[in-house]
Structures are given as C-alpha cells and as structure tokens.
Specification:
Blueprint lengths: L3 H15 L5 H6 L5 E8 L3 E2 L3 H9 L6 E4 L6 E2 L4 E8 H31 L6 E3 L9 H10 L13 E3 L1 H7 L6 H11 L6 E5 L5 H5 L10 E5 L3 H11 L4 E5 L7 H5 L5 E3 L2 H4 L6 E7 L2 E4 L1
Parallel strand pairs: 6-11, 7-8, 8-9, 9-10, 10-11
Antiparallel strand pairs: 1-5, 1-12, 2-4, 3-5, 12-13
Length: 294
C-alpha cells in the first residue's frame, strides 16, 4: 500500500512546508563543502516503521546523501540502538533532519502502540485493525505503520467497501422504512465483489441485517459498536459464523484482551492512529568534526 509515489508526495510536501525558501541557518552557518555523518538513535525501546520514508526526506533534499538502514520495518529495538546512518553534504543532512525525524517518530510510535495491542490479544484469534481516523494526508504512512506493528488494515477509503454506519441506517429508516429491505436493495445493485459491512448498536438489529442476504449477496461483516462484553458474547452466538464479527468502540489496552475473549473476529481501534505518541528517536550528527545533536 505504501508506494514510492505516495512517499514522495508526502515527503516533498513536508520539505516544502519546513523550508519553503531554503534552510537559512544551514546555508549561512555551514560551509558548502562540509560533510556530515549522522546516526538515527533510539532514545527508548519500540518497533520500527518508516525506514523508506525517513530515507526519502534526505535523498529528496540532496541526491548525494546516502541512508543506510540498520533495521527493517517491523523490527523491535532497544534504547540506544542505531537504526540508520545518514551520510553526505552537511547542509542537506541538517535541512532534512526534522522532516525525517517527524515522520519516522510518528510511524514508529504507531507501530509500537499497535504491537502492544497485538500482544494483548495473542492466542485469541482476533485481529487488531485500524480505522479511517488517520491524519489527513498521512493515511498511507500511518496504515503502513499499523502493519509494521503486526496489525491489519480496515478499508482504505470510502471507495473500497460499503460500510453502513449508524447515521446511514438512520437515514435509511427515517420514514419508517424496513432495514432488511433497504439493505437487500443495496445488495442487489452492488457488484458481487463489493464487501458490505453494517454497524449495529443493539442485538435486535443483527437478525434483520443478516436477513438481507439472499444467498448470492450478503452482509459480509457486522460491526458490534459499543457492546458490553455480555452482549458481544451474545452477538457472536447470534451470528453463528454467518458473517465476520467486528467489535468497535470503548477499546483500550485495558479492555482489549477481554473483548478478544468474547470470540469476535476483528477489533478495530481508532487509537492506533489518532492517539499514538511519537516515539523518541534522535539524530546525532558529526559535522566537520563538531558534534551536533537534534
């Protein structure tokens, strides 16, 4: 999902934002022929993500800069580990460092948090998945970071699948319309390859949703939104394998293990992307014999 084109788009926009008319400090303080070597160093343990993004910040700034990655995306590391080494013209290294750090810190923070959720449900059979609660413009990067942490991706965009949430259902049934009938009409019009998911917020909605299927087309996933643990277990029993069951709402590291134990197939966690803390990574550089810490 994370293509070179997507990386380039994000990184160029970030570089233009950070140095729209060049890096005045580096241009006036650093000699044009100065070279720099800088290590990306972990200040705390975590899971790495964003190596190609980090490298692009430097190579798109100056093609003479080289970046050697010491770890791969998805690798765990400890405090003090060197994760990458950057070498090349000092001006370019210093110009790109903040953009490179901002992106790799953000992505590694998401990967690290995701790995904690994945560990919390190990052995249950439940998948940890992200949501569309991503930073505008950074979805491809943040979704990649979730996978680096061992998680899975939900639909990428509104164009990828039908997902009828509470507001959609409220509009469909506003005039007293029949939920099963409305869903059945939609299923009949959709291509057979389009996945359909429906969110429900109470047990009584499950059977009408499932009844919309006609053998050729059906609701593939039912999201149980903000259900209690008891109702999650009841929902799993009601669906009885007729659809994939996703749990959402009220999910935290404190609750996710118990949610997984109810037998749901997927647990979607918005916090993976909207609440992940940037990991503390630093770039320690040596420029013409002088140490500079960023």
């Amino acid at each position: 999902m994370l293509t070179p084109r997507q990386i380039e788009r994000v990184v160029i926009a970030a570089l233009e934002e950070d140095a729209p008319w060049g890096d005045v400090t580096s241009e006036y303080l650093i000699p044009a022929d100065a070279a720099a070597t800088a290590d990306l160093v972990a200040r705390e343990p975590g899971v790495f993500s964003g190596g190609d993004v980090f490298a692009a910040a430097f190579t798109l700034t100056d093609a003479d800069i080289t970046v050697d990655l010491a770890v791969s995306d998805g690798a765990a590391f400890g405090a003090g580990d060197v994760l990458a080494t950057v070498s090349g013209p000092a001006r370019g290294v210093l110009t790109a460092e903040r953009v490179g750090l901002n992106l790799v810190q953000r992505m590694s923070g998401i990967a690290t948090l995701t790995a904690r959720y994945v560990d919390a449900v190990a052995g249950s059979g439940a998948r940890i998945a992200d949501t569309r609660k991503t930073t505008p413009g950074l979805r491809a990067l943040e979704r990649h970071a979730v996978r680096s942490g061992g998680g899975h991706n939900h639909r990428y965009s509104l164009s990828d699948a039908v997902m009828a949430k509470d507001n959609h259902l409220a509009v469909l049934t506003a005039d007293g319309g029949d939920l099963t009938g409305a869903l059945r009409r939609a299923l009949a019009a959709l291509p057979h390859t389009t996945h359909v998911e429906v969110e429900v917020d109470r047990l009584e909605q499950i059977e009408p949703v499932l009844a919309a299927g006609d053998g050729t087309a059906r609701v593939g996933t039912i999201m149980l939104d903000n259900f209690t643990l008891d109702d999650l277990r009841a929902g799993v029993a009601l669906v009885a394998g007729r659809a994939t069951i996703e749990a959402s709402g009220g999910v935290s590291l404190r609750t996710v293990t118990d949610i997984a134990a109810t037998g749901v197939d997927v647990i979607s966690v918005g916090a993976l992307t909207h609440s992940a803390r940037a990991l503390d990574l630093g770039l320690d550089a040596r420029v013409s014999g002088a140490d500079v810490g960023a």
